[in-house]
């Protein structure tokens, strides 16, 4: 497994462990507290709903309920808001406490104090059943008016259950607060008179009389609905009770387990970091020491490579860099030695002839001056080539790019070298189709001149040199193909090296400076192209240049 993956898995392990531990403990604590809070809240809501339902059923009115709500508020500690289905607020503890009403809580209960008629307790015969429902309606209406009157007079009420489900209301004269109260009997009698509904008879219950059906289920449904309709104008209206208020402070989670989890995760992170540091820093220390030696000029230092992970790849890259620097240093030393060698002999010749002329050893003549001039020209050419190569490799060689037709450029090159080819009895031909590139024509002629000169020099009499230009969809291809002596396979990698010559026996007068191909490669590279060579000893050599092609019409 790579080092990157190991680090990734370690980080993932720590992160997942931390997340899982924290999430589990938080969820556990939160769930426990939420469940406990929900259970408590539900129990409180059930208690409040039950107490309010009992109150409404017993008193037949919501009058006097604020006292009960105040007691429930003290008992539960919750804000209580009781509102009728009609939208009228019956009581709100926030209002009772002279505070601004807060947004309602989310716990809602339904309070319906209306009785539910037990039809099973009535006779089965339809007419008797209807009469029983009418009697229950009349009894409840009278009873609830009686209970409401007693409540307003602060007389306790007793609602005794019956088999039909309709409570029977009466005054609770046994209560201590009314037992010795004067005039209670008169209050009870007065409430009984108020409760009576003169003119209402059992047979006049129109809603019951219209119930007639062939099935027991339909009859019972109609009678139950008639009961509910006929008591709704006197029974306490159904209501909704809201417990709590949005904005109440939530329960605080216990922090002990969370701190323990955090400590455990921190311990895992510390251990993982220590292991990671030992694995990472040891090879990094080795690389640092090697880099410091490299900076001091010791190019022989290398670092050991272990494994196949990213650190091993870094070590291999460092060693490759050190190898490259060492090879560059060696090339620089060889370049200095080659330049010194190339200039030493002709300069020695010039000095010798000049000293001989100065001492009068030899007589000056036209032939001697021509020889000295040729030696000076050769040295100037080497210096110019070195300067061109240095500028090109530094990216400072000037280019004046225009659209160039390679077919025309090859024809110009053929014309320039035609005389030399004829004198060497070598056929120089062009086979080119029109193809345009965006380039510096002078620099391209310099490249082609080097290649053609080398090809003519390597081709014996009777041979041929062909200049070929072709194209693909995106590229322009130029080839210089000769039938010369060829280049050995082991020498091909060095063709573009400075001062390299295929025939080491050639001198500077017959073999060139050895810089032409290095300059040609740099010029082609600066044109975003490539130059390659293929050769076979005794058959010939082919140099291939590939350049980005342009549409000539778009460039004109």
TrEMBL record:
Localization in the cell: Cell membrane
The chemistry this enzyme catalyses reads:
ATP + protein L-histidine = ADP + protein N-phospho-L-histidine
The protein's matches in Pfam families, at most eight in alphabetical order, are given as: HAMP (PF00672), HATPase_c (PF02518), HisKA (PF00512)
List the GO cellular component terms. Answer: plasma membrane
Q: Which top EC class is named for this enzyme in its record?
A: transferase
Q: Which residues cross the membrane?
A: 255-276
Question: What Gene Ontology molecular-function terms does this entry list?
Answer: phosphorelay sensor kinase activity
Domain of life, per the record? Bacteria
Name the EC number(s). Answer: 2.7.13.3
- InterPro entries hit by this protein: HAMP_dom, HATPase_C_sf, HATPase_dom, His_kinase_dom, HisK_dim/P_dom, HisK_dim/P_sf, Sensor_HK_Regulatory, Sig_transdc_His_kin-like_C
What name does UniProt use for this protein? histidine kinase
